[in-house]
Write a structure and sequence with these properties.
Layout: E1 3-7, H1 12-23, E2 27-31, H2 39-49, E3 55-57, H3 60-64, E4 72-76, H4 77-82, H5 87-91, H6 94-100, E5 106-112, H7 123-138, E6 142-147, E7 149-151, H8 160-168, E8 185-187, H9 188-201, E9 205-210, H10 216-223, E10 244-247, H11 254-268
Helix pairs in contact: 1-9
Amino acid sequence: MDKVVMVGVFDFVNFHVCKALLDKGIEVRGIQIETEDDYDILIEKRLEIGRNANFSEVTSGDILNGSYENETIVLSVYDLYMRYKEEYLLNEDMLINLISKNKWEQIVILAPSQMLANVFESKAEIVIDDFINRAKSQKQDIHLLYLPTLFGTWQPDTFMFQNSILTEMNRGKPFRGLREETSDAIFVDDTVNSILEIIENKQPGRYLLQSGKSNQWNLCASFLRINDQASTERKAETREENIIIVPVKNSVSIAEGLTKQIDHTHRINS
């Protein structure tokens, strides 16, 4: 894996994946799905990686009009879902065209672990399921990586953890409602290491990344002093077979990971 195209490169999980790829010397071309909100944060992220010679920001048209054989494409549906941008999957054929019109070596889709539930609870999850099925109809050999709640630097305020941190700083916006899974939570940097290992192994399939520990989301919420009344249980329950469970090795404790997130939030909002 020498070259990667990332769709939604400045979104939460994808941004961390991008930085990890650049640290490995891998060339990354990034497409940003532009949004008007959080423009200052977008500028900060561009400054953080924009000086890396292996990174270039491109448009979807650049990719659609080019030839990208033997490269990897990464799309984080997870980020779209958590940012309430799933309508992008519904209204645009661009993403399906990106998947189908190039001879990609690997196609990687990051999805929320709720997509493995027995019953979909929202229209957003139905939209994502439809997109994944359309993508699979175009290309069968896809890496589907299902992720629980991830925490760490650059977490959007659509997550309860980040919204709580900003509220403590008197910077919080009205919370739109709980979307993340509440049975598991993993530090994003540790999760990215597992994501890269899966991609580098080049074995398409369906993977569920887990902490391997119980009550991790609740322990995070307790550290942030989020009371039980503020949250509603949302647990992912695997409804299908042929899911490869990937235990994520943790490098930091919950307290250390959330402290990094808190300190970073104070820095960029000072």
